[in-house]
Amino acid sequence: MGAARDVRAMRGGAVLLLISIVAAACGGTGQPKPTGWTPATPEPTETVANVASKASLSSPSPTIDPATRIPGGAWALPPLPAGVPFTGHLLVTDRGNLRLVEIDPDGKTTWSFGAGTDPAANAYAAWDDAYYGVDGRTIFANSDPTSTVIAIDMATKSVKWHIGTPSKPGGGDTGFSGPDDSVQGLDGVVWIADIKNCRVVRVSGEDGHRLGQLGDGKCAHKPPSRFSSPNGAFPTANGDVVVTEINGQWIDRVAPDGTVRWAFRSPTQYPSDAVPLSDGTILVADYVQPGQVLRLATDGTVLWKFDDGGKLVSPSSATVIASNRVAISDDFNDRILIVDPTTSEIVREYHDASGSPFKWIDCVDYRPD
Description:
The protein is mostly beta strands and 369 residues long. It has three helices and 26 strands. The chain has a four-stranded antiparallel beta sheet. Strand 22 (335-340) and strand 23 form a beta hairpin.
């Protein structure tokens, strides 16, 4: 997650208590009784089938729908058999080890970046979050500590472009202060939540040049002109963007023309990375201890809840990897959980990549190929 969450490096109960007190002052955590993982009716304008042909970037595999590479898009994939954690690959932001690492279902490393192997790349570490591009060949990663965003070519492990001067927070057209998430939509645009500048920035996935922004830099909940410490901006398949605001626990959906389709205060204490699923519902992590992951309707109704019996320690991201699988980054337990939401049972836990232990996992993403 990002700048406003540097407190994650401090694992003491005093910090977590402070977060809880502040969150309670903003509205509390009252929530309806979860009703299960019953799929909602897909939105006609946002089904994978309707938008797959609109992708401006080609897929390396003609059998993979680019829309399934958008966070939340894999909700449209078929259910997996019992015991199968996932197919494809997971991208783990292993912040404490200064690396990005990709694993297969057996937990084997299939790709990695950073961890002292490239001095030039390390200037942009540590990374908070990393996401696959819709072409399946590029990764976009952001760093709160260095206030930078980079695009990585997976084949060459080289930095294609970067925005921001390492370790010099800024603003305007070329700087960030606490960038959080860098997520590409089907149109090639990369969305970046700029927490301390209270804005959401749009850049070209091709070369990183700035395309525009939502928010005037003043920190308040008044979308689309103002946001209060946004820590996530996730594009939908039809071109909308879902923004998570830390202060007030707001989650907003904004159309390309600036129309606010809906906004609600989530039943979380610290909302983290609200991901739109392809049926219009929302999957969000609650970054507290004990933490939780919720699937929400667009009025804030809890449709599903997972907290591992109170064992989650500040989970910062969750993503759907099949219609019956959710991957969760359980940050300070240093593990990735694969959960079957139809039963709320853990299918598998990953604590390492090819035997190399994770340390402070900050994000998990998925590609089906």
